[in-house]
Amino acid sequence: DIQMTQSPSLLSASVGDRVTLNCKASQNIYKNLAWYQQKLGEAPKLLIYNANSLQTGIPSRFSGSGSGTDFTLTISSLQPEDVATYFCQQYYSGNTFGAGTKLELK
Amino acid sequence: EVQLVESGGGLVQPGRSLKLSCAASGFTFSNYGMAWVRQAPTKGLEWVATISYDGSSTYYRDSVKGRFTISRDNAKSTLYLQMDSLRSEDTATYYCARTGILRVYPYYFDYWGQGVMVTVSS
Question: What residue of A is the nearest CA neighbor of B39?
Answer without folding.
Answer: A43
